[in-house]
Amino acid sequence: MLKSKIQFKLQENFPFNLTKEDFTVNITLLELGDDVSPYFKHSQNTNVRRLNVIKVFNDNLTLETMFGGAYSGTYSVQIRHTHFGLVDTSALRFIVGSEITSISPRIGSVYGGQLITITGTNWDSDPQNNPVSIVFNGALGSTICYVQTTSRE
What we know:
Layout: E1 4-9, E2 23-32, H1 38-43, E3 48-57, E4 62-67, E5 73-81, E6 85-87, E7 93-96, E8 99-104, E9 117-121, E10 132-134, E11 143-145
Antiparallel strand pairs: 1-4, 2-3, 2-5, 3-4, 5-6, 5-7, 8-9, 10-11
């Protein structure tokens, strides 16, 4: 999933006035998605991502955060207030994912240089927000690819 704004609504009886500096929001990986390479699943030593609180709305007790992207998977959400402590988010799950619907051409040189087209959902219009990793021969063949252009269907 790519960069996007995400809002969290607090309980109706939240006892404090909202200021963005008083909140910390983190997501913690619970389970990686099926589309993540097995090498990556065993190489990660941190599974926590911070979401920056960019705006608060006192009228409807809502936090607006900026999500910078993460690998596909299921995440738990932790919201901490400097005076209140942890907000109960035990029932909240955050699911990150995208779908690749086609790749062409289906074969190319192992030495690289082939321009490929990947079609799917959840791509950003900014090419730098679309990291792609091509894996062949397990971890030894992992290659980061740079996206030249993007478009929305």
